[in-house]
Amino acid sequence: MEFKVLLSEKIKEVEEIIYDYLPEEEGKQALVMEAMNYSVRAGGKRLRPLFIMEFSRLFGGNIDEAKPFMAAMECIHTYSLVHDDLPEMDNDELRRGMPTTHIKYGQAVAVLAGDALLNYAYEIVAGAIINSSYPYKSAIAFDILSRYAGIYGMIGGQTVDVMSVNGINDKETLDFIYELKTGALIKASMMIGALLGGADEEQLLVVESIADKVGMAFQIQDDILDVTSSTDELGKPVLSDDKNNKFTYVSLLGLEDAGEYVSVLSEAAIKDLRELGMESEFLEELINYLINRKN
Q: Does CATH number 1.10.15.40 belong to domain 3-291?
């Protein structure tokens, strides 16, 4: 089957799983639930829950154990985007070709919707641990999820990013931001999927190495697309890094060398993946697809 067709089918499968967990829009607080659901249903690559699903399958896991973590991860990723788009952060009015949550619902509701999505993710996972056939393993997965979403992961990276506007021009700080802000949830997704699928400690170290490379390559490709893509292709404003005076890998290396580095990182990730000695053709193609994407 052609890769893009297979990818489309897998994204559809992921979305069906995620949507099953979304809250009913009812009660006096229905507006915040509507804003939550609008934000999640706005679309996207569904990359993080897809990684959970595919790494769980790679190691022969029961997909039912992974499903709540897939939904929770997408809620966390979505909340981060809702807050990222706010005027106090990136001040974006479009996300995936649609009005951002604060444009549609106002800033106050957008803040609450983001907060609610994060809390709802933890509700989903708490229920999953209670009902799991492997509660200890699920609890470890929850630890990975919460740690990489918090001050030692995504929020930590975002904090340094906000503090560094107009203030950094060094690779060390840039790498720190990318590893935490973007790479942390990608790493958590791959590790959670592998853990729930039955990976041992040695295999988890290989998965962590894969995730480090893919997360970095993914963010650098975002830098490139911000310069080379269009608003129609990207589904959000382009040249926003320049507008916000952000130092990126394009600033650091230039467009061509940044693209070369993405290729180097991706090839190294695929090499690590093959060292696991498992059938991983789809994941290899997915990594290649991510470095050549246009949005």
A: no
Helix (H, G, I), strand (E, B) or coil at 266: helix
Rounded to whole angstroms, the Cα distance separating 196 from 177 reads 28
Q: How many CB atoms lie within 10 A of CB 192?
A: 31
Residues in the chain: 295
| Long-range Cβ pairs for the range 164-168 (8 Å, 24+) | 164/247, 165/244, 165/245, 165/246, 166/245, 168/247
Contact present, 52 and 189 (Cβ < 8 Å): yes
Phi/psi at 213 (5° precision) = -70, -45
d(CA 45, CA 243): 25
Query: 144 and 191 in contact (C-beta within 8 Å)?
Result: yes
pLDDT tens-digit map of 245-288? 678 899 899 999 999 999 999 999 999 999 999 989 999 999 99
Say if CB 82 and CB 106 are below 8 A apart: no
**CA-closest candidate to residue 109, choices 44, 162, 22, 38:** 38
Q: Where are the domains of the chain?
A: 3-291
Residue-wise pLDDT for 138-183, tens only, equals 999 999 999 999 999 999 999 998 887 767 778 999 999 999 999 9
